[in-house]
Amino acid sequence: MKKVLTGNFAAAYGATAAKVDVVSAYPITPQTTIVEILSEIVADGLLDADFIKVESEHSAMAACIGAQAVGARTFTATSAQGLALMHEMLHWAARGRLPIVMANVNRAMAPGWSIWADVTDSVAQRDTGWMQVYCENNQEVFDTILMSYKVGEYEDVLLPTLVNLDAFFLSHTSQVVDLYDEKTIDAFLPEYNPKIKLDVKDPRSFGALTSPEHYYEFSYKMQIAQENARSRIKEVSAEFEKRFGRKYDLIEAYRCEDAETVLVDYGTIAGTAKDAVDRMRDRGERVGALKIRYLRPFPVKEVCRILNSARQVGVIDRAISFGHEGPFFTEVKAAMYGSQIPIWGFLAGLGGRDVSIADIESVVTHMKQNEPSNIIWIGVKK
Length: 382
Known about the structure:
Elements: E1 2-6, H1 7-17, E2 22-25, H2 32-43, E3 50-53, H3 57-69, E4 74-78, H4 80-85, H5 87-95, E5 101-106, H6 120-123, E6 131-134, H7 138-152, E7 161-166, E8 174-178, H8 182-188, H9 212-244, E9 251-254, E10 261-265, H10 269-282, E11 287-292, E12 294-296, H11 300-307, E13 312-317, H12 327-335, E14 343-347, H13 357-369, E15 376-377
Parallel strand pairs: 2-3, 2-4, 4-5, 5-7, 6-7, 10-11, 10-13, 13-14, 14-15
Antiparallel strand pairs: 1-8, 6-12, 9-11
Helix pairs in contact: 1-2, 1-7, 3-5, 7-9, 10-13
């Protein structure tokens, strides 16, 4: 079935298709319609789930943690300040090895008060232990929610996932989304039934005091789980392509085979970059684009495989780590440690500022005319 859906509706339909058992809901613009449509779906009997209305985003994540701990598949959604308020509980969810899936509508952090796109909110959570995916379009939002449950629920992973979509560019923009048939989805994503869970008939202790004798090893195991997730993501992506005909991976390379200049991007900027690459190719410029889907686990080998054949690399960030540089630029630069390939770091679109094809082309022009730099502001008003 094909439907014309906003990104928020695609996220809600993804959670519905995954047959989640619990939805924990607290509104925040521009995420609110995700939980609103889920409340209607549950109320209409189209999803057999408990819909829990809570008093804050902190409580929304706490409710997911409690429900997931007893073996329920859970979902929630948030944005910006709401995600920041969850910060403590994000650590708990990840270190509790609970494969919760949460949609985050990327929104700029206040003040100044903003409801528009900026990924600083999610990047600020990159060390909590959550896997993080950045979506280019509404179909990818729907598909990624399904795949995220499958990946996270593997016994050698057991980690939560943050599925990110840009505010308004996706959340409130309508696109055609293929929803697939229920039987095929059920075959792809079976019922969640963890071996270890809270059960009065099989008492266990969760989240207890941990001495230095064991805490170190818990951290080690979480890192191994992130590393395991890389291969699981590839495995799940291959199965998804076989069943549904759409291909995903940790990264997506676009016209990079013979590219001298490769632009690294993520989220909705990736779509604009593809159009810019096509236009520059028509002029004879050997330019390609590399979309990074996963910030965690970061696809080090895959990024290097593509970029090591380029002559120059530019990374376009829709976020900034104040006092340093764009966060994805830092990640790419670290992955390419030891390489002699020059790399530029660009900032664009912060706070929802539009990033046009001309802006992407200006990035390539700048790289031709200037020495590498770690922070170049595109379109800033000085």
